Amino acid sequence: MANPIETINSSSITGLHKGLPSSFSEGHLSELLESCVKKTWPVLVGAYGSRLTSFELDYLLSRYVLGLTIPYYSQQEPTVHLDACRCLLACIWPLERVEKALRVVPVGSDEWVSKAFGKAEELGSRNSMAILQSFKHSDLQQKAVA
Question: What angle do CA 45, 48, 54 make, to 5 degrees?
Fold first, then answer.
């Protein structure tokens, strides 16, 4: 049986559209989430790369991705949510690195590091909510014009 991780791509992210505005496009949202991950990674590396271990840095991004996907997957099975996180991280990292970042929690080398993990998840959630709001705003504008 093939390893399911080896077949991951952004089109594997499904079921995101439930309860979203009619203007919503699942493919468009997948692209937006992937873009967020690709843009956030170099920012995190620049901001924290010299102060965190590579393992802590990877975990930091995985927590960001968790927050980014919570609004779309909080009502689904945890394995489905984990698969979505895996897909998004796989757009920038090799699969072995993705699995390590998702499955092993590092002990923060300092108290601020542990707090940073939570803050990264909060940032991902805020970014995701901003995306949702833009879809809802777009949907309202389209209805007003119609």
Answer: 70
The length of the chain in residues reads: 146
Mean pLDDT of the chain: 81
Q: How big is the CA angle at 42 (ends 40 and 44), to the nearest 5 degrees?
A: 65
Q: Can you tell me the distance from the alpha carbon of 54 to that of 42, in angstroms, rounded to the nearest whole number?
A: 13
DSSP structure class, residue 10: G
The alpha carbons of the chain give a radius of gyration, in whole angstroms, of 16
Separation between Cα atoms, residue 68 and residue 131, nearest integer Å: 10
In this predicted model, what pLDDT tens digit does every residue of 36-75 receive, in sequence order? 999 999 999 999 999 999 999 999 999 999 999 998 888 8
> Rounded to whole angstroms, how far apart are CA atoms 92 and 53?
18
| Side-chain half-sphere CA neighbours of 111 within 13 A | 0
DSSP state, residue 108: P
Tokens 């919503």 map to which residue? 24
Residue 14, φ and ψ in degrees, nearest 5: -125, 170
Alpha-carbon distance of 134 to 61, in angstroms, equals 23
Predicted pLDDT at 98: 97
